[in-house]
Design a protein that fits this description.
With 261 residues, this protein is an alpha+beta fold. It has helices spanning 4-14, 19-26, 30-37, 45-54, 59-68, 86-99, 138-143, 155-173, 176-185, 229-233, 244-251, 254-260, and strands at 104-107, 113-116, 205-209, 212-221, 235-241. The protein has 2 domains: 4-68, lambda repressor-like DNA-binding domains (434 Repressor (Amino-terminal Domain), Orthogonal Bundle); 86-260, Beta-Lactamase (2-Layer Sandwich). The chain has 12 helices and 5 strands. Residues 8-62 form the HTH cro/C1-type domain.
Length: 261
C-alpha cells in the first residue's frame, strides 16, 4: 500500500505542479510539502485535505489519502437510489421531468446511466438487449454497431468528442475501469480521420431515423461542492434540439414516429 506521501506526490505529478507551486497554493512551506512526500513528516487530516483540495483530488481518492495516513475516511458513499439521499434523488427526478419532452439522463463516473427521463426510451428501440442490461453504459450504447452507432450520421465527430471528454476526465480521476472503457471503445485508430465541424458553435449529434435527421447538442450539470462521493461522481446530461425541425420532432408526433421506425 502506498504511503500518503507517495499518493500526494502522484497527484502532484498528475497536476504538473512543483512542490513550490503546491506549497504556495496551500499556504504552506515547500519544505513541509517535501517532508510530507518523503514520509519524514506525518501530516494531519486537515493538512492532507488542504493539499488534496489544491490538487483537485476526487473525494474517493481523498478517502484513500486519509486511510493511508491512518485516519478515518471523511466522505461517505451512499447509493443514489438508497434511503440516505431521497431529497437529492427527488430533486434530480424533477430536473429530468422538467426537461421533457427533450432527453436527459444521469451518468456515474464510468458513464453508466443511473437515471433518465421518458424521452430517452424512444432512442432505445431496436438496440441489442444485452446493451440494455443494467448498468447501461452510455459510451458503449452510443458507439456499438448494435446500439445507436448506425443512426449517428457524424459518428466520427461524436467519437472524437467522447474521446476528448473522457481523456480529460481520466486526467482528473485516473479511474481504472473508465480507462478500460476508453481503451476498448475510444483509443485512437492510426487510420482514423477526424473532420471537426469548425463552423458550429457546438458540435451536435446528428441522428437519422427513418430518413429523418435529428440534431441535438448537450449540456452537463454537476453538483457544486458535494460532500458525498456519489454526488461528486454523477452528472446530468441534458439534450436540446439544435434546429427547429429537431424541436418539432419532440413537440409533435416525432417521438412516436421514432418508436415506429
Amino acid at each position: 500500500m502506498d504511503s500518503v506521501g507517495q499518493l500526494l506526490r502522484h497527484w502532484r505529478h498528475r497536476r504538473r505542479l512543483s512542490q513550490l507551486d503546491l506549497a504556495i497554493a496551500a499556504d504552506v512551506s515547500a519544505r513541509h510539502v517535501s517532508l510530507v512526500e518523503t514520509g519524514k513528516s506525518n501530516p494531519s487530516a486537515d493538512m492532507i485535505l488542504r493539499l488534496a483540495d489544491q490538487l483537485d483530488v476526487p473525494l474517493r481518492e481523498r478517502n484513500r489519502l486519509l486511510l493511508a495516513a491512518g485516519f478515518a475516511p471523511r466522505y461517505a458513499e451512499r447509493p443514489l437510489d438508497g434511503e440516505a439521499l431521497p431529497a437529492v434523488r427527488d430533486a434530480i427526478a424533477r430536473v429530468l421531468r422538467a426537461h421533457e419532452p427533450y432527453p436527459a439522463l444521469v451518468i456515474d463516473r464510468r458513464w453508466n446511466i443511473v437515471m433518465s427521463n421518458r424521452a430517452i426510451d424512444a432512442f432505445l428501440t431496436g438496440v441489442a438487449p444485452d446493451l440494455l442490461r443494467p448498468p447501461i453504459n452510455m459510451v458503449r450504447l452510443g458507439l456499438d454497431p448494435r446500439g445507436l452507432a448506425p443512426h449517428l450520421v457524424n459518428l466520427a465527430e461524436v467519437r472524437s468528442l467522447l474521446r476528448t471528454r473522457i481523456a480529460r476526465q481520466l486526467a482528473t480521476t485516473a479511474d481504472p475501469e473508465l480507462t478500460a472503457i476508453y481503451e476498448e471503445l475510444l483509443a485512437p485508430d492510426a487510420e482514423e480521420v477526424i473532420h471537426p465541424i469548425e463552423s458550429e458553435v457546438v458540435i451536435p449529434m446528428i441522428f437519422r431515423f427513418g430518413g429523418r435527421e435529428l440534431r441535438l447538442f448537450s449540456t452537463t450539470t454537476t453538483f457544486g461542492t458535494p460532500m458525498d462521493i456519489t454526488l461528486d461522481e454523477v452528472a446530468i446530461e441534458s439534450y436540446y434540439p439544435a434546429d427547429a425541425e429537431s424541436a418539432a420532432y419532440f413537440t409533435t408526433s416525432g417521438a412516436d414516429a421514432r418508436a415506429d421506425a
